[in-house]
Amino acid sequence: MNYSIFKCLFCGYSAQVQGESYFDEGSYKVMQTKVCNGCKTLFEDLYDLPIEWVILNGKDPVSLSKALSLSPHHIGTGCLKCSKPSSTAWSKNKPVCPKCNKLMTLKYNGNLPSKD
Ligand SMILES: [Zn+2]
Ligand SMILES: [Zn+2]
């Protein structure tokens, strides 16, 4: 599993998020990095593909654009810290710090050590 850490060099805030939408082929879930409008922290929101589609096409690989075009159901719980439902999509292409609005730095980008 690929992962990345973004850190703000101005205020010290850091978060382990992907910074983009991506499709997890293992679980057939779409993840999207969001910033909570309540407590201003980054988190990964979760979407599920329509179950009918998974049954029909469960063994076929699916691209992210295809997955998003299937209007996945929102199943994320929102921000885990304050459970505010209100959030905004956040992209690594413009990694604005949710705390101080300066640009964050990609601190680490690689693979988690595998146990296999
Ligand atoms: Zn900051
Ligand atoms: Zn929050």
Describe the structure.
- With 116 residues, the protein is mainly beta.
- It has one domain.
- The chain contains 2 helices and 8 strands, in the order βββββααβββ.
- Strand 1 and strand 2 form a beta hairpin.
- The radius of gyration is 15 Å and the shape is globular.
- The two termini are 13 Å apart.
- The structure holds zinc ion (2 copies).
- The site of one zinc ion has 8 residues, from loops.
Write the layout of secondary structure elements.
Elements: E1 2-7, E2 14-16, E3 21-24, E4 29-36, E5 42-48, H1 51-57, H2 64-69, E6 73-74, E7 87-89, E8 105-111
Antiparallel strand pairs: 1-2, 1-8, 3-4, 4-5, 4-7, 5-6
The protein binds zinc ion (ZN) (2 copies).
Residues 8, 10-11, 13, 97, 99-100, 102 line the site of one zinc ion.
Question: What labels would you give this structure?
Answer:
single chain; mainly beta; 5-stranded antiparallel beta sheet; 3-stranded antiparallel beta sheet; globular; binds zinc ion
Strand content: 25-35%
Query: What gross morphology would you assign?
Result: globular
Count every beta strand, where a strand is a DSSP E run of 2 or more residues: 8
**How many domains make up the coordinates?**
1
Tally of individual helices: 2
Report, as a whole number of angstroms, the end-to-end distance.
Answer: 13 Å
Roughly how much helix do the residues carry, as a percent range? Answer: 10-25%
Computed over alpha carbons, the radius of gyration is 15 Å
**H/E order of the elements?**
EEEEEHHEEE
Largest sheet: 5 strands, antiparallel
Low-confidence stretches: none
In round numbers, the mean pLDDT is 88
Structural class: mainly beta
Which molecules other than protein and nucleic acid are bound?
Answer: zinc ion
